Amino acid sequence: MKVLVAVKRVIDYNVKVRVKADNSDVDLTNVKMAMNPFCEIAVEEAVRLKEKGIASEIVVVSIGPKVAQEQIRTALALGADRGILIETEEKLEPLTVAKLLKGVVEKEQPQIVLMGKQTIDSDNNQTGQMLGALTGMPQGTFASEVAVDGDKVNVTREIDGGLRTVALNLPAIVTTDLRLNEPRYASLPNIMKAKRKPLDTTTPADLGVEVKSTLSLVKVTPPAERSAGIKVDSVATLVDKLKNDAKVL
Amino acid sequence: MAKDIQGLGLGLAVRFSGSEFAKKYKLRRPAEKLAYAGTKKGFEVIGQMVAKKKAKKSEDPKMLPEPSTAGLFDLTLSEEQQMIKDTVRSYAEEVVRGLAHDANEDMKLPETYLQDIMDLGLNYFSVPESMGGAAQSYSPTTNAIIAEELAWGDFSLAYATLAPVAVANAIVKWGNQKQKEKYLPEYLAETPVKAAIAVQEPAPLFDPAKLSAKAKKTKAGYTISGVKSLVPFGGEASMYLVAARYKRRNRLFIVPGDAPGVQWQAAPAMGLRATATGTLTLDKVLLGPDALLGDDSFNFEAFMDLGQLHWCALAIGACQAALDYLIPYVNEREAFGEPISHRQAVAFMVANIGIELESMRLMVWRAAALAEAGKPFHREAYLAHILCSEKAMEIGTNAVQLLGGHGFTKEHPAERWYRDLRVLACINGGMHL
Predict the structure, then answer these.
(1) How many helices (H) and strands (E) does chain B have?
(2) Domain limits at A177?
(3) Are A88 and A63 in contact (CB under 8 A)?
(4) How crowded is the C-beta side of B64, counted as CA atoms within 13 Å?
(5) What's the confidence (pLDDT) of residue B206?
(6) Whether pLDDT at B372 is above 60
(7) What is d(CA B327, CA B338) in angstroms, rounded to the nearest whole number?
(8) Which residue of chain B has the CA closest to A32?
(9) Is B289 an 8 Å CB contact of chain A?
(10) Residue A4: strand, helix, or coil
(11) Where in the numbering of this chain does the Electron transfer flavoprotein alpha/beta-subunit N-terminal domain appear (chain A) (predicted)?
C-alpha cells in the first residue's frame, strides 16, 4: 500500500519567534527552520507502517520554496522512499495547500494520506479537513492510534474528554496528534542514503492549481509581556489576594 | 601645552610636504594642503581624496568582474552535514546531556548508553559500504562535526562513543584486507563495540614521537610490551590499538583485550570520568601475524594529527556548551540590582569566549578540510591543537568563574566541563611539544 505524507517547513520549535518591527509578519531572517513536529509524527507513523509490512512505499510531499527540500530530505532520512516538492515562493493558505495536495493525491493514488493535525507556525488545523472535503476521502483527525485492518483503518481520535475510534474505508486521510508516537532520530547512515533517494520537483501550475490568496494578514503582534509578580508577607494575605484580586478561589 | 603639540604636528606636516619622499610618491600637493589646513581639516581632505579615488574606480570601464563564489572560503556545511549536525545535536540535547551528571559521579558509562546510541548508526558510519557499512568516504570534517555536537551533550560520553569509531577509522584507513575483514564486521553487529586507541604513556614530558612501548617480530607474529595510560572502558574493551616502537618507527598494533599479558588497572583521572580510564599494562603480549596495522607507508604523524583534531573537536563542543550555558546565566543573574552581564568585566569575558571558540572551530575545520582533501595538514593540525589546548582550559576556567560560587559546585555542569576540557593540554604531548 502506498502512503503519502505531507510535511511543512516551519520555524524550529526551539526558536523564540520574533515579530518584524512594522508588525507585518513574523521575522524569518536567519531563523532556524525545521520540519513541523506534527509532520514528523506523521512520517514516523508511515515508517512504522512500512516496518510492519503494511505500507510498501512512502511518498513525502512538501510545498514551498526550494529550501523546503531540506525537510523532504529529513523525511527521506527517517525512512520515506521518495519525495515531491511543489515549488512556490507564494504565501500559502490552507485551501491552496489542500488543492495542491489533492493534485498529488490524484496523481499518486495513495491508500493513506498522513499529515500533521496542524503546523506550529499558523496553527490553522484546516488543511487535512479541507483535503478530505475536496477529495471526498474519509478523514480521521487528531489520531493517537492508527491501525490498518484490511481495507479499513481504525483511527483513535483525541477528543474533548476522551477518545473516539472511527473506522475509515481506505483510501483515507489521517491527521496526527502529539501522542501518536515519538519520532526516531534519523541514523547517520540513513542521512547519507537519503541523498540518493529520488526527489522530484513540480510546480502549482503543473498541478493545475492557481496560487492566490483570499486572506490578507493585517497585523502580527507578540504576546504581551508578563508583568512582574508581587511578594506577600503572609498566607492570609495570599489567600485574600487569590480570593478577591485573582478570583481563583 | 596643547598648542605646542599641534604646532609640532603641523611642523612635521610642513617638513613632510617638502620632502623627497613626498615628491617621489606624488604626495606633495595633498601634503601641502594638509600643512595648510591644519591637522583636523587635513584629515577631512584625506578622507575626501580617498572617497574621490573610490568613486573614480567604480567608473573605470576595466572594473573587476563580479567575484565568483567558486573560490570563496566557504564554510557552509553540505546538506548531509547539516542534517547530521542537527540530528546529533538533538540526540546530545535530549539524551546525552541528561546522563552526563550521573555518569561522571558514578565513574562509569550508563548501563545501556552505548547500546542506545547505536540508534544514530555511528558504528555503520565508519565501515565502508562495500563491507556492509554506510561510509561513502572518509571525512575528517564530518567527524569533527559529529564529535563537536556529541561533546556538546557531554565530553566524556562523546569520547566513549567515538573512541571505538576512531579505531575503526584507523583500520579502514591503514589496515590491510585481512585486518578489515577480521575486525570491521564487529562494528556491524547488534551489540556495541568497546575499543580504544592507546598512545599515552605515564612518562614525564611524554612525547608520542618517542614511545617506550616496544614491539618485536617473532616467528608466529609479534610480541609487545609497554604501559599505556588514560585508557577508557574499565578494562572491558575487546581490542586496543596500541602505539609502539617497531623497527625504529612508531607503529600501531591491534591488541585483543583478552590476550594473555594484557592487564588493565583503574586509574581515575580529573576528567573523562564516565569513560572509566585506567592504565593498560602489556607484558610480552604475543600477537598474531596480522597485528601490525598498515604497511611501511603507515604515517604515524598523520594518525596523531587526526587524533588531535578529534580531541579539539570534542573540546569545541564542550566549550560551546559552556557558552550556551553562560549567556542566559549572566543575563539573568542579578547583582547590585542589575544582571551581571551589565558589568564589562563579565560581558568581555563572555565575548572573548565566543571569539576564541570560533577561532578554534575555524582552525580545526581548516585542518580537517585539508586532511580530507589529501593535502598536507600537519602544520594546521598542530596550530589548531595548540590553540584549542590553551583556549579550552581558559574557557573552562572562565565558565566556572562566571558562575561565581555556583560554578565551583556540582549543581552546575561548569566544573565538569572545566575538568574535561583540561585533558587537551595534558595528553599526547600536551601543548608543550
Answers:
(1) 15, 9
(2) 2-244
(3) yes
(4) 4
(5) 87
(6) yes
(7) 15
(8) B86
(9) no
(10) strand
(11) 23-211
CB-CB: which of B83, B122, B146 is closest to A77?
Answer: B83
CATH code for the domain in which residue A176 is found: 3.40.50.620
More confident residue, B74 or A35: A35
Q: Mark yes or no for CB contact B80/A192 under 8 Å.
A: yes
The cell numbers describing A191, all together, are: 542521512
Task: Give phi and psi for B218, each to the nearest 5.
Answer: -125, 180
Look at B80 and A186 and tell me if their CB atoms are within 8 Å: no
Question: What pLDDT is attached to residue A245?
Answer: 85
Cell of A172: 483515507
On whether residue A208 sits in a domain, the answer given is yes
Report the DSSP beta bridge partners of residue A19: A26
Whether the pLDDT of residue B16 is over 60: the answer is: no
Taking the Cβ of residue B82 and every Cβ of chain A, the question of whether any pair is shorter than 8 Å is answered with yes
Taking the mean position of all CA atoms in its chain, how far away is CA B190? 30
State the Cα–Cα distance between residues B141 and B368, nearest whole angstrom.
Answer: 5
- Select the residue of B82, B91, B133 nearest A185 (Cβ to Cβ): B91
All residues at 6 or more sequence positions from A165 whose CB lies less than 8 Å from its CB, including other chains: A145, A154, A155, A156, A157
Residues in chain A: 249
Q: Name the band, by pLDDT with cuts 50, 70 and 90, for residue A220.
A: very high
Pairing mode, strands B195-198 and B222-231:
unpaired
Which among B80, B88, B117, B327 is the top mutation candidate for probing chain A, defined by the most A β-carbons within 10 Å of its own β-carbon? B80
- Contacting B with CB below 8 Å, chain A residues are 34, 69-70, 73-74, 77, 184-195
Note whether A70 contacts B82, CB cutoff 8 Å.
yes
Q: Looking at B4-46, which runs of residues are DSSP E strands?
A: none
Is A42 within the bounds of a domain? yes
Q: What is the ipTM of this complex?
A: 0.72
DSSP state of B108: S
A249 in a structural domain = no
Distance between CA atoms of residues A34 and A62, nearest Å? 12
Does any CB of chain A come closer than 8 Å to the CB of residue B90?
yes
